[in-house]
């Protein structure tokens, strides 16, 4: 497992110049653009919709757009994001009445499908759907707001999910979101993650390239 996918969350970007911010962070070495979509219903905050995704594609962004839906119900919005140019769409099992059907819906629209586990969501929710997933996203904070501190028990959860993925032998990306910084990314990588969502740690830094390079270096060092 050599993946080190850096996915800056635009939640922490300067929205007055979003296209430029995304261009800059991709030029600085980021792999994906991470979208935190919140509906003030499933989570206590309201952020962005498909129009922002579409606008970035029109602006010329070609990097994968990694859409994390913190919305309920989830099925209604999936086709809109797919049409707007999303590459991957992840959702929370609590926000779907039929988890397997939602995964099929995402794939039927040509996107990769991910399932998101909150800190309190048991890993067993993956037992019957892992075969169909392209990505598992573990929340290392409670969803709803940026800038929160990493929850340490996520490391054990990462190890458990990594073992589940490896046992099946199918390539599934294991992503982490919440409180990821240069100084803890090594630990997170050592526990089995291969994609890292970072918002404020990147966008609040004066030099995006420096932070991303430091993150990659710490991941490589942790993996030996």
UniProtKB/TrEMBL annotation:
Keywords: Carbohydrate metabolism, Isomerase, Metal-binding. It comes from the Bacteria. Its cofactor is Zn(2+); Co(2+); Mn(2+); a divalent metal cation. Pathway: Carbohydrate degradation. Its EC number is 5.1.3.1. The active site is at residues 36, 177. It catalyses: D-ribulose 5-phosphate = D-xylulose 5-phosphate. A divalent metal cation binds at residues 34, 36, 68, 177. Catalyzes the reversible epimerization of D-ribulose 5-phosphate to D-xylulose 5-phosphate. This is Ribulose-phosphate 3-epimerase.
